[in-house]
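Deviation from plan, reported transparently: TXD complex.
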Amino acid sequence: MGGRAKISLIGAGNIGGVQAQLIAQQQLGDVVLFDVVEGLPQGKALDICHALDGWRSSVSVTGTNDYADTAGSDLYIVTAGLARKPGMSRDDLLKTNLGIIRQVAQGIRDNSPDAVVIVVSNPLDAMVYAMKQVTGFPKQRVFGMAGVLDSARFKYFVAADLGVAVGDVDALVLGGHGDTMVPLPRHCSVNGVPLLELMKRERVDEIVTRVQGAGGEIVGLLKTGSAFVSPAAASVAMAESVLLDQKRVLPCAAWLEGEYGASGIYMGVPCQLGRGGVERIFEIELDSAERKMLDESIAHVERLIAEIQI
Ligand code: TXD
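Because the crystal trials were delayed, the predicted structure below was used instead.
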């Protein structure tokens, strides 16, 4: 019987720290927190270890500045990079975070050639692309977290508006992670009841606009950084589906080879997540308005990726 999974978190910042906490609480596996800042991963790991008793958790949580300590990991979640400040777009992070992701990809490739890699760093679709190019890993094992967070935001705003349990709201967001994301109200339902039977179209459109701006709304409020609890929760839910082979169908930034009419880019689409990573991509019927929004999103991601000289 195999031991616990080994999960390495590259980036022990705002999101990385919460990811480590959630994984330890849920006992998904042993955690290695990595960062380039001396002491940061070690301090956060030790603090979480001192909480294990309260959670009745017996996983190991360690911090390091040495990639060798991540060797043989089953799964990596990557948040390394700079976060936005007010007035910055996700795309403004491209050049800086590209250099960081290249470095991270080499560390992962050299130490855990069979690992699954979930990328969180922004600009997300471009960073996942760079991760795949530099690691050379197959497309199934490199994918990004954005749609799970964007759809969680969509579900929350719908649930809050209707006064229903958020767990009974199903919602889907496709496309790039940013202003061109494509929330799909037509595919949103409350325990099977189509959303548009429960809410006027104008109100739905207001919610869609708020979802598209939700990241910026939090950056504007916090002023010192971006959202971190919800991205951590979303990426750990994806990790859980991989590690426990749950076969959940979640919107993830996946490598496309013709799906949705796109090739050679990463973009948010419905994916089946299991032991092998992205095991299947689901193609859904889109109406002309949805198709137009998705084409705009594809074009945006293509422009972003064109800026990357790998
Ligand atoms: O939905 C999504 N995908 C987005 C992603 C949601 C919110 C935040 N999004 C992005 O995640 C954000 O724009 C950033 O690019 C990442 C991480 O956000 P976080 O809030 O965790 O940023 P922090 O707190 O600055 O943490 C980043 C850590 C920090 O501790 C740095 O020291 C470290 O990254 N860092 C590195 N780690 C490893 N290797 C290198 N080279 C490196 N450089 C910095």
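The longest strand covers residues 263-274. We consider this an acceptable substitute for the interim report.
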